[in-house]
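Attaching the record inline, Q. Sequence:
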Amino acid sequence: MKTILVPLEESDVLPSILESALIVAKRFDSYIEGLYEQPGLTEVVVAGEGLGVTPPDLVETFQQQEKERAVRAHELFEAFMKEKGVPLNGGGDPQGHATAGWVEEDIPGRDLVGNRGRLFDLIVVGRPIRSSATPTMSLLEAALFETGRPILIAPPKAPTELAKNVVISWNGSYETPRCITFAMPLLQSAEKVTVLQVEEGMVPGPSANDATIHLRRNGIAAEALNVEAGRRTAGEAVLEESERLGADLLVKGAYTRSRIRQMIFGGITSHILDAAEIPVLMCH
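Structure, as predicted:
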């Protein structure tokens, strides 16, 4: 995990996003790249007109506000790195310690994260919060579905440790083994790894015991844990068991069921994105 992308949005979760990225970067002497993600301007349909029209004055106001937000994001990013003693080197060759750089590109919408994120080993985003407009689900989903890379979802409160005690949420699907492959550098340096199987969340496929054998063959002293959800949903069981185990990272394949079905009927991924209080490593 030598390269880490941090798309920045103004939000209360920003300190947690930056702290999460920095913990990983210090462990692997990584380069952290800050990136301001400019949202697209939603067209405004003017009453009486047959087509959607964006008034010029609204465009100008929007563009000015975005310039101001980009400047603030850049200043916050550099101030954080300077406070933490992380040199800003513009993304040159490996330095043997964590470094940082900043990139600005004038590409509106979510295409920038989707495209640029493909060049990085890890993308760090914030967990969307119901009471706040940011971090946005659209940014998280662009990173998750458009890059092919793993994403680290920072919780509302900044972590002090990460990936010393890891829980893998196992459900037998293909998404989770793929996520485990991406997480290997973190798993290999962890002090404890638990493969958690919630019976009600399983799909046809290998068991947590099978996954544990695979991990042990890769030098990871993992333990399997099979539990019943009982009166809990499978998502609640995953988070409650992770908390009981003292986990500081949850590894989870995303959206075994379609996003639409999860929006309508719920699912483990949806619950974790709504309620996780620890960092979550996800991929699809």
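The two ends are 18 Å apart (CA to CA). Confidence is low (pLDDT under 50) at residues 42-50, 260-266.

More tomorrow.
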